[in-house]
Amino acid sequence: MSIEVIKSVRTMQHRSSVLRQAGNSIALVPTMGFLHEGHLSLVDIAREKADIVVMSIFVNPTQFGEGEDFEDYPRDFERDLSLARERGVDAIFWPDADEMYPENYSTYVEVEELDKHLCGASRPTHFRGVTTIVSKLFNITRPDIAVFGQKDAQQGFIIKRMVRDLNLPVEIILGPIVREDDGLALSSRNTYLSDSEREQALALYRGLQAAKKMVESEEVDSNIIIEKIRSFFEAEPDVQKDYIEVVDLERLAPIERIDQPALIAVAAYVGTTRLIDNIIPKLSDCCG
Ligand code: AMP
Fold first, then answer.
1. Residue 12 maps to which CATH number?
2. So what's the pLDDT on residue 288?
3. Domain co-membership, 170 together with 196
4. Rounded to the nearest whole angstrom, what is the distance from the C-alpha of residue 148 to the centroid of ligand 1?
């Protein structure tokens, strides 16, 4: 099947229902485009799990706050189309903003509590935008499976909770973080970095690796781990901490001691670019 580009909600819904009636399972890979190997690794997982892979490409305005980079967010649809085609995506859902948010749009989906810390604390309306758009994408593409990246771990856990709480008939899979050879997590926003910032951005990965080693050698005190990561940030002139947190996996709330499955997550400005990264020590890299 050659790749199909669909812009309208009705066409996408119709296409999905025809495919399902013909007995196909559908996997959705939601993205904001400007594709890299991280996104494409999710396509590989999707292809293994379902007959048809639908990728959505939509820079979702409701998940950007005031003064964030919605306007500047990198976009290159032709490049995305050819990368998606090469990787075996069957259909791209690529709507315009007013197709998704018509005039007088008034309905939002909110998952409580899990958005209080980490990125939710510094981006208070972000996850409401994410859960709203993801709900809409599920209703439009009707997937059996949806694949997200552990790169955005809080997002993944919030979406899993939404799916459970609202009984949405979709299985959520989180794929492992894909990194550059030197460890920097791939991100569409890496394109904003100057050469010097690109080098300094490694503080996030190096700090997390040091934290992982500490946990592996039985350090359980979250504060000691956080201080270690902070020292990597403070060694770089253009790296400004947004947060360094150790949280549990149920409530995503800070824990003093790592005596249960935990997420160590960081966010930092490198110059003006906000980057995030995380590890789930003790568990394998992928949290299924
Ligand atoms: P985005 O286009 O940034 O909204 O990301 C779309 C999906 O790709 C999300 O589920 C992200 O978690 C995932 N993703 C982004 N970067 C990576 C990465 N480096 N490795 C794995 N998945 C990623």
1. 3.40.50.620
2. 43
3. no
4. 7
**pLDDT for res 283:** 61
Query: Annotated catalytic, 117?
Result: no
Residue 149: closest CA among 184, 187, 108, 202: 187
Cβ neighbour number for residue 132 with a 10 Å cutoff:
21
Provide residues with CB under 6 Å of ligand 1: 31-32, 38-39, 41-42, 148-149, 151-152, 175, 177-178, 185-188
- Residue 1: per-residue pLDDT: 56
* Residue owning the nearest CA to atom 18 of ligand 1: 38
Give the amino acid at 47.
R
The CATH number covering residue 228 comes to 3.30.1300.10
- Specify whether 117 is located in the same domain as 207: no
Mean pLDDT of the chain: 97
**Shortest-distance Cα residue to atom 6 of ligand 1:** 31
Instruction: Please indicate, yes or no, if residue 183 is contained in any of the structural domains.
Output: no
Q: Is the pLDDT of residue 16 over 90?
A: yes
Domain identity same for 59 and 19: yes
State the DSSP string of 142-158: --SEEEEEGGGHHHHHH
Domain containing 273: what range? Answer: 188-280
The minimum-distance atom of ligand 1 relative to the CA of 176 is: 21
Q: What percent of the chain has pLDDT over 90?
A: 97
Ligand 1: distance of its center to the CA of 190 in Å?
12
pLDDT class of 77 with cuts at 50, 70, 90: very high
Overall number of domains in the chain = 2
Between CA 122 and CA 243 the distance in angstroms is 9
Give the residue-averaged pLDDT of 232-244. Answer: 98
φ/ψ of 188, rounded to 5, equals -60, -25
**Nearest CA to 3 among 100, 99, 78, 97?**
78
Give me ligand 1 centre to Cα 39, in Å: 5
Between the CA of 153 and the centroid of ligand 1 the distance, in Å, is: 10
Where is the domain boundary, 175, 210, 239? 175
